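User: Can you help me understand a structure? I only have the sequence.
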Amino acid sequence: MPEASAALSDLRVACDLADEIWAGALLRPSTDSIADVAAMSGDGLVRVTESLAELARRVQSLQAKCAAELASRSRSGGEDDVARRHGFSSAERLIASATGGRFSDAAKLVAVGEATAPRASFTGQALPPRHPHLAAGLESGSLCVDAAETIRRFLDGVAPRADRQQVDEAELLLVERAPTVGVDGLTRLIKQLQARLDPDGVKPREDELRSQRGLRIWEDRAGMIQLQGAFDPVNGAPIKLAVEALVGAELHRARDAKRGFGAVAESECDADGVGIGVGAGGANSAGGVPARAGVLDAIDESGTIGGPDAIFDEQRTIAQMNADALADIARLSLGAKQAPAALRQTTVVARIDAGALADGRGHGTIDGIDQPISVATVRELAMSAGISPLLLGHRSEPLELGRAARLFTPAQKLALVERDGGCAWPSCNRPPSHTQAHHIRWWKRHRGRTDLGNGIMLCSHHHHRVHDDGWIITVRDAQTWFTPPVHLDPQQRPRPGNRRLPTMPRAAVAAASVARVSAA
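Assistant: Let's start by predicting it. Here is the structure, written out as tokens:
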């Protein structure tokens, strides 16, 4: 039979390739594969890995052909049904048992094998495979079964609603790009192709995604607050971008802190000779990015400037930073009156062709989101966007409360922000909207006073670090100093905290009204 001959040919190719891998990697027979792999050079290990991957793809191609043939011989239900003759209800069950894998993997082999197998007409005339480019990619060993199944599902789903020539061109494009972009890249590319080939289906798919949105919040047995959610593109984009903006700013701060500065230019020093770094946004504005954001030098009380201070290296994982960012956003929404600089500089951007926006046919995209959105949704986003002014006033309030009140007043917090510029922790770039006023000498334990000299602005993360590690905070001449515990620095050298870089006389700042325009 031609099929059997082709299968034997594929098997011989796979065996020859295996022999080449063995000969090229080991040069001699061996029973200790672990030692042989450990003895390979880096380049040799890469070559062997690539060859093994090609061998695996060729074996998968042969498995798909066998799976399709098994399926075609297991549908009669009679005595000639191969699967039933071997005690299985279907070819997929038989294949899963033979491979020791999952039923879904066996079904994938059958689907790919049938989509790429030669066909015959009712008159017996030979016909090409349903997806010829996909079949060629499998035959050449450039496609794995996972990539082939991803492409097959897309082609079969879009074919009834798209032009045949365009579907053929899309198939060729996906097969050519698959070895480069992988399965994850194929998924992103398919979303865009689907919107182009089936523009009328964008809105229904968008509605389906929106109907599946949801968020669960609960406290587990350990006391952790658990979140599990799924968001449609429009609702998920601002969440994703806001968290990414804050985490990105922290990563830039950590990178800059590692680089450090061997010296600080004279123009970047204040009157006391303490180096002041300027963040990515330039000199501090009323938004309140700490003046030392992104810069940390080891400075002792004499003003000596050294390299980066390892004590302040970022210790959190990306997942922990994501969680902290989301918590900061929640705190901002609950009480803050001023948006953080990182969020003010981030906008949800929806893009669409002008012609599509005019005639209503086509689709749009949201920057950073793979899933296309409908023209109607782009129009809704455009109509809902606007500019709303927010005026924050100022009125005179007492700044020294002693023991008369525990909580710092808004006026005191403004004065502390004027001094600290945001979180006072060295090198932290959290703006005032992400900080809270804390007593340096605790209210209960030390009977601390609610006065400016006993207050400091700290973000939640560094507030916990101060208490957990046992840092000592002092304020001298409107400058905060952080003295580490012995286990972090045996010499306990004080580090200067953040200071706001003045942009106008202090009296003028106290009397000014701050206006902010924010994008809705």
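Now, to help you interpret it: The longest strand covers residues 214-219. The CA atoms of residues 402 and 449 lie 5 Å apart. Let me know which part you'd like to focus on.
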